[in-house]
């Protein structure tokens, strides 16, 4: 028999994170496009981001037939957070036309699934691409990052908002993420964590 889960944060009721989810305002609008494979992921940090940001929307799917309408937000300048050779540093892009707030489109999935989202939704290919600074490291201490600078979706959103809306900070969004990690470490035991993760520097 499965354990009852919170309908909001989707965590087991005895590990509900809702009390830690801040309600944060941002000038930037977030459109998070989540691949269906991420919905039942143990972390699902994109959902935590959408719950914590008042000006955010989370949409699940592979093909988004109404994407044009979602991107046509009056008064917003859309861009795609996707690091590649064509991407402009986010700080540089945000510094242009500062009177117009950004609509930041964030694909949520593995790199392969994120690329599939772009392939299935050609309109995404037409958006200016922006990237985060190099040298960032994830707070997720239980898994080795697939590549240098790889962050969870929530961490990437926090870094992006810190850049776009400086000096405002968005660290409050990370509270449930940190609690989730601490809970996983506690469940496996501190000794096991140190042996399998901390001592290897992962």
From TrEMBL:
The organism encoding this protein is Pseudomonas cavernae
The family assignment reads: Belongs to the TDD superfamily. DTWD2 family.
Q: What is this protein called?
A: tRNA-uridine aminocarboxypropyltransferase
Q: Which InterPro entries does the annotation name?
A: DTW (IPR005636), DTWD2/TAPT (IPR039262)
Domain DTW: residue ranges: 2-189
Keywords, in A-Z order: S-adenosyl-L-methionine, Transferase, tRNA processing
Q: EC no.?
A: 2.5.1.25
Pfam families, alphabetically?
DTW
Question: Which GO BP annotation is one of this protein's?
Answer: tRNA processing
Question: What Gene Ontology molecular function terms does this protein carry?
Answer: tRNA-uridine aminocarboxypropyltransferase activity
């Amino acid at each position: 028999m499965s354990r009852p889960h919170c309908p909001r944060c989707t965590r087991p009721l005895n590990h509900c994170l809702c009390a830690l989810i801040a309600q944060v305002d941002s000038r930037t609008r977030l459109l998070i496009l989540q691949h269906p494979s991420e919905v039942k992921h143990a972390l699902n940090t994109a959902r935590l981001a959408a719950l914590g940001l008042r000006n955010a929307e989370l949409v699940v799917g592979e093909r988004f037939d109404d994407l044009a309408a979602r991107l046509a937000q009056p008064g917003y300048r859309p861009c795609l957070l996707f690091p590649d050779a064509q991407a402009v540093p986010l700080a540089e892009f945000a510094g242009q036309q500062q009177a117009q707030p950004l609509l930041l489109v964030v694909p949520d999935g593995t790199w392969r699934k994120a690329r599939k989202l772009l392939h299935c939704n050609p309109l995404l290919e037409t958006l200016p691409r922006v990237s985060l600074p190099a040298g960032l490291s994830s707070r997720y201490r239980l898994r080795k990052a697939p590549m240098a600078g790889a962050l969870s979706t929530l961490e990437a959103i926090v870094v992006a908002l810190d850049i776009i809306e400086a000096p405002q900070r968005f660290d409050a969004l990370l509270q449930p993420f940190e609690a989730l990690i601490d809970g996983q470490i506690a469940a496996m035991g501190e000794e096991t964590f140190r042996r399998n993760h901390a001592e290897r520097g992962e």
